[in-house]
Amino acid sequence: MDDDRGQATILQLLGVGMRYGSGEEVLRDIDLSINAGSFHYLVGPSGAGKTSLLRVLSLSRPIARGKLVVFGHDVRELDRDRLGRLRRRIGVVFQDFRLLDHLSVFDNVALPLRIGGADEERIAAHVSQMLAWLGLADFMEAKPPALSMGQRQLVAIARAVITRPDLLLADEPTSNVDPARAERLMYLFTELHKLGTAVILATHSREHLRRWPFPVLRMEGGRLLSPPASERLAAE
Amino acid sequence: MAPPELDLPLAETPASRFLAWLAGGLTYLAVLAAAAAAFAHGTLLRLAERPVLVTVALPAVEDPAEAERQLAAVRALVESFPGVAWTAPVAAEEVGRLLGPRVDRNEDAQPRQALPRLLDIRFLPGAEPDLGELLRRVRSLVPTALAEETSPELSTLEELARRVRWLGAAAAVGVFLLMLVAVSAITRTSLDLHEETVGLLRLLGAPDRYVARQFERFAAFAALSGGSTGFVLALSTLFALLYLAPRFGFHLLPVEPRPLDWVLIAAVPPAAALVVTLTARIAAAIGLRRLH
Ligand SMILES: Nc1ncnc2c1ncn2[C@@H]1O[C@H](COP(=O)(O)OP(=O)(O)OP(=O)(O)O)[C@@H](O)[C@H]1O
Ligand SMILES: [Mg+2]
């Protein structure tokens, strides 16, 4: 059963540990529960494990220990096709963008829709609307290597949100753009959140935390320091 | 022909680009091999169609009336035999000429003795008569009659055609097997080269069949573009061998292509494209399953 959109908890981690190869664990004893339609910041010093946690949540790295339940499915019990179906409900903005350099901006953004089997007419409408909104209308046919870092980041974000995912994981999505663009992006994320997308946003920006107050997940040394609900920056 | 727009930059990797050349070269060889087999088969069929000729010899009989009666009876019997087209008694002069100096002749060069009678029998084209049964029946009338097949000897041509047919068929099968092996190897190699992009597609939720289809679409493009070039070159080669070479005095096997041969030859490129495409899909699917 995939029809669990209405269920309150979309992500659940119990005692999760994760390591790269045979190295020591970079994530330890993570307990976390994320509700549908929620918004969380993920903060912590460099090397704390924010990116690693997002990799676990985006199902791009296997866990070494514990239990991970995504949209009501224990991921260890899923075959690859069903895992793919869950992944299509998750939008990811990678810290290093991971765009396909041989494809145009348009095709990069269209990729998740094509994978999901959308028809080209809908894809054309959606993608050009999204790119126009992000100020990239003139770059639709450009290839990523011809873009600035900031523009690439926008393309990566457009690709992550184009399917209006149930869960959006964004790894420092505003680190390369100017303040005006960053504000526009925060507006985009909060709008998606209002439409029902759960958002987890790794950031170093105190400015964001202050202007758009949401619960904060704080990490250090591979551990989650505090349960999110208990800490609200707005209350500070 | 422009390569398809794919999520994987397959057109940009040398291993994949080589696929079109490979498909072209192998299609070229497969078409020539299939043509050789088909033409040789046609030649064999024509050789089999050539009518059987048999000559029946009846010993000499002194009484001309009796000789006449006996010959007529044998003719009637032979003409009722299945597959016989017609019979013709060989003229006495011809028989005399065939027997030559062995015949005792008078001063007018007329034979002094009665001569054996020969009866030429021609069977319908393609008929495969039981000559033993024919002789048995004739001997029920004339116990000392003889029969001999007199069709021209074509066994060397037949042997050659048989060998060409076998070699052509074997070569065509060999080329298809080579295609299978080479396309799997190339697909595996490009899968490894694009492992990172494949990982990203999977992360975006692409099922394996979506990724495999990328390889399949590229292979189909390579097979069609390379294969059509190979086909045109193979047809030119065939045309040169069949129609130009004889004008310059080079005669190959007595080849007369049948319409069916051309149908077979035209079926080779689509078959090759299908093999290449399916192989790429299956090799990609297997490779993807292996890729963690
Ligand atoms: N691909 C990798 N292979 C091996 N170790 C890694 C890999 N990625 C990260 N690490 C290690 O895992 C630990 C956590 O790193 P991670 O990138 O998750 O931190 P982060 O909180 O995202 O840091 P930053 O704020 O700098 O992005 C670090 O010690 C890092 O060296
Ligand atoms: Mg990071």
Q: Layout of helices and strands, plus pairs?
A:
The complex is a heterodimer of chains A (236) and B (292).
Chain A: E1 9-19, E2 25-35, E3 39-43, H1 50-57, E4 65-70, E5 73-74, H2 80-87, E6 90-93, H3 105-115, H4 120-133, H5 149-161, E7 167-171, H6 179-194, E8 198-202, H7 206-211, E9 216-220, E10 223-224
Parallel strand pairs in A: 3-8, 3-9, 6-7, 7-8
Antiparallel strand pairs in A: 1-2, 1-4, 4-5, 9-10
Helix pairs in contact in A: 3-4, 3-5
Chain B: H1 14-49, E1 53-58, H2 64-79, E2 84-89, H3 92-99, E3 117-123, H4 131-141, E4 146-149, H5 155-193, H6 195-203, H7 208-244, H8 259-290
Antiparallel strand pairs in B: 1-3, 1-4, 2-3
The complex binds adenosine-5'-triphosphate and magnesium ion.
Adenosine-5'-triphosphate binds next to helix 1 of chain A.
**CATH architecture name of chain A:** 3-Layer(aba) Sandwich
Strand order of the largest sheet of chain B: 2-3-1-4
Average pLDDT number of chain A? 89
Going by CATH, the homologous superfamily of chain A would be P-loop containing nucleotide triphosphate hydrolases
Poorly predicted runs of chain B: none
H and E order of chain B: HEHEHEHEHHHH
If you average the pLDDT of chain B, what whole number results?
Answer: 87
> What is the number of strand segments of chain A?
10
The helix tally of chain B amounts to 8
| Helical/strand content category of chain A | alpha/beta
Which strand order spans the largest sheet of chain A, edge to edge or round the barrel? 6-7-8-3-9-10
Largest interface: A-B, 25 and 16 residues
Short descriptors:
heterodimer; A: 236 residues; alpha/beta; Rossmann fold; 6-stranded mixed beta sheet; 10 strands; 32% helix; 24% strand; disordered N terminus; disordered C terminus; B: 292 residues; alpha+beta; Alpha-Beta Plaits; 2 domains; 8 helices; 4 strands; binds adenosine-5'-triphosphate; binds magnesium ion
Describe the structure.
The complex is a heterodimer of chains A (236) and B (292). Chain A is an alpha/beta fold and 236 residues long. Chain A has seven helices and ten strands. In chain A, helix 3 (105-115) crosses helix 4 (120-133). Chain B is α+β, with helices and mostly antiparallel strands and 292 residues long. Chain B folds into two domains: 10-47 and 155-290, no CATH class; 51-149, Alpha-Beta Plaits (2-Layer Sandwich), CATH 3.30.70. A four-stranded antiparallel beta sheet of chain B has the order 2-3-1-4, covered by helices on one side. The mean pLDDT of chain B is 87. Adenosine-5'-triphosphate is lined by residues 20, 26, 44, 46-52 of chain A.
